[in-house]
């Protein structure tokens, strides 16, 4: 078999956002680069292409215009209260967290604006917490949506790479799967692997792993930016932490199958230290995609705070485990119930105002930068088109005119036999009684009333408080929810330049990592939990650091 050989200054493994950012930085430094990825050219941009485009900023102009008072000190309090760093190996992640917070409160927004990335003026309030000031969650809204969603964030970095390809400064190699990092005397000198058979599979769809050739790349430095493990459910279950209970038997996939974690083991075989592999970020508002792209394709509902959340038996989740408040706290609670699913119960009025679906393809108004469609979908009557498609076709949705019919529809779905219909009625009617006056002991109702004091929530995110059983707000909706796999919060331990460290803490010459492969920096800068809007931002920050450091070392 003929082995195709390439020689370059910098090899980048993975063409997601972190890899593209690293590529741009190396090209700006005048270096020659080779970018390899196991998928077809259609998938350039990786997971970021599918993202909603959420970005975490601190004290931004968008926040200030909405009357939000934020600061680096408050963001640091929220980040460290959420992260819960408690291990000796958290030393590097702590450093990365401090550096990232300074970036988010400093040049991050201006840097992106200079690159042509714009931002939706309404700031979202994700991971609201609901505990004490030192507990997990965002004290203020910080979720900024990029105009153009994920593709809009990718655009300037993809353009830089493709310009360099035309100029002969960059070589892009699709369907090249790395199977080994090459070393010489402890120095990483490049990579070798298989050339895979061409595929016509659309973006995100699973592709074959049939090898038709071999390749090797000789490089002075190598950046691993190949993502985490979220598409590999077997590996997710193997690394599932005991603190979250038993892993689900059934999950849906929030990322394509190519997010398989294969490069993590390959980098470890070359001497890289993997840390915090038991820290992971999975959502509990997953629904099965009625029009799937990849195996077990799931979509996350980005809920406002009004839906009533019930476990599989019909019992309401305890405070503060309300929609959008504490993702991992809710996951941990639901794993104690003995079931893999839970339920939202809500009115159509709530769905119209509060249901947004995660993903660039589920938000054509923001992704397409279509102002007219945005006004009609976000402020007009009825559910947005993608939400209505799930109401019409989604296997997890039940829409009925009265509560008895709704409960019967819920019980008819697989897993619905666990539901206690009488308990559902008791929970919904008790909640509705609390709406009769301005006083309440129901913490969720108090929180949603408080949320509407924020202009962003009042305009597009939180429905006016009302009885779910009010006929004028109907019909009623129930949604069966699944655990949806998403992000690895651990990974290759790196220094602040993105250089991979070995078991003794010494840098491995020639080897760098960025993005999810590095736990978004340091091997886990989020700690146990994330504040949201920090995954794309982590790719931007770690990719920039690794690209600059690798180029400077050559």
Descriptive key words:
single chain; 554 residues; alpha+beta; FAD/NAD(P)-binding domain; Flavocytochrome C3, Chain A, domain 1; 2 domains; 8-stranded mixed beta sheet; 20 strands; 21% strand
Describe this structure in a few short sentences:
Helices cover 32% and strands 21% of the residues. It has 18 helices and 20 strands. Strand 6 and strand 7 form a beta hairpin.
Detailed description of the structure:
The chain has helices at residues 17-28, 61-65, 72-83, 91-105, 108-114, 149-167, 233-238, 262-269, 327-334, 348-354, 364-367, 371-379, 385-393, 403-412, 421-433, 443-451, 455-461, 535-553; strands spanning 3-13, 33-36, 54-56, 143-145, 170-173, 176-184, 187-196, 211-224, 252-253, 274-275, 280-288, 298-302, 308-311, 341-347, 356-357, 397-400, 476-488, 491-492, 499-501, 507-513. With 554 residues, the chain is of the alpha+beta class. It has two domains: 3-226 and 261-279 and 489-553, 3-Layer(bba) Sandwich (FAD/NAD(P)-binding domain), CATH 3.50.50.60; 292-484, Flavocytochrome C3, Chain A, domain 1 (Alpha-Beta Complex), CATH 3.90.700. Strand 1 (3-13), helix 1 (17-28) and strand 2 form a beta-alpha-beta unit. The relative contact order is 0.19.
Largest sheet: 8 strands, mixed
- What is the total tally of β strands? 20
CATH top level label of the largest domain: Alpha Beta
Tally of discrete structural domains: 2
Q: What separation lies between the terminal Cα atoms?
A: 32 Å
Q: Estimate what percentage of residues fall within beta strands.
A: 15-25%
Helix fraction bin: 25-40%
The CATH topology of the largest domain is FAD/NAD(P)-binding domain
Low-confidence segments, given as residue ranges, are: none
Average of per-residue pLDDT values: 96
CATH architecture of the largest domain: 3-Layer(bba) Sandwich
Sum up the overall morphology in one term: globular
GO molecular function, one term: steroid dehydrogenase activity, acting on the CH-CH group of donors
Protein name: FAD-binding dehydrogenase
Pfam families: FAD_binding_2 (PF00890)
InterPro entries: FAD-dep_OxRdtase_2_FAD-bd, FAD/NAD-bd_sf, KsdD_DH, Succ_DH/fumarate_Rdtase_cat_sf
